[in-house]
Amino acid sequence: MPQGKFLKYVLLAIAGSIIIVSICISRHATPVPGEYHYSSFLRYSLNPATIIFFIVGLVIGYYWQLNPWLTGCSLYFIFPITAIVEALVYEGTHNLIPFELAIYYAYSLPAIVAVFIGRYVARLIKQQRKTTDDEVVD
Q1: Domain map of the chain by residue range?
Q2: Residues ≥6 apart with Cβ < 8 Å to 21
Q3: What are the average pLDDT values for consecutive 10-residue runs of the chain, which has 138 residues?
Q4: How far is Cα 15 from Cα 24, in angstroms, rounded to an integer?
Q5: Where are the alpha helices (DSSP H) in 2-108?
């Protein structure tokens, strides 16, 4: 993977984390005490984040033409990281990490679909411009 693309995925992971945390803070979410302190706090943002990430996915797919699967997973990267950190800090929690990762992957499906749509629209517009340019030349 070229270094520029890798940096874009890192940027998406950071932006996704900032969006999710800012949604939680703006909704005045309060973390529950105990073992699932951070993951329960972050779940307050799922519905608004899904809508925002769908829009971000459209834009990313249209302009950056990134891999849809990696883009969707990058946007929701904070969830698996939180689960792993909580599993390390609180022994006995998150004992079904593979299933949790599958659920977090399912969270990213709308963003993945949006990136596919954005790439498809960009391809259609590019083909239309090429066809228009060819007609002008003739």
Answers
A1: 3-137
A2: 42, 45, 78
A3: 90 96 90 80 89 96 95 95 88 85 94 97 94 74
A4: 14
A5: 3-26, 37-42, 46-63, 68-75, 78-89, 97-107
